[in-house]
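step: validate -> pass
step: tokenize input -> pass
step: predict -> running
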Amino acid sequence: MLSILRKARLKDKELRILMLGLDNAGKTTIVKQVMNEDVTTIPGDVGGQKTLRSYWKNYFEKTDTLVWVVDATDRLRVDDCRDELAGLLLEDVRFASPTR
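step: predict -> pass
step: emit ->
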């Protein structure tokens, strides 16, 4: 994943990554791993609890990349995860386009 993000990053520009997914999907773990690498990123880890999901769209404006995190070992929540992602994609949101 990091190699893809490095290639996508513009030279001398910060890459703003928004990590979303259900609670306990591993978002914070991924952010901590990325921060230990030598990458100029500003990751945003937004909570995945049901009460916070309606706020996700508020973080899109200054986001370059969205990473949707799925806990593939939690088979009981795969349907919930799919439904939340589908609902998010159906919303009328626009990601900020990086200045080139």
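step: describe -> The two ends are 22 Å apart (CA to CA).
step: cleanup -> pass
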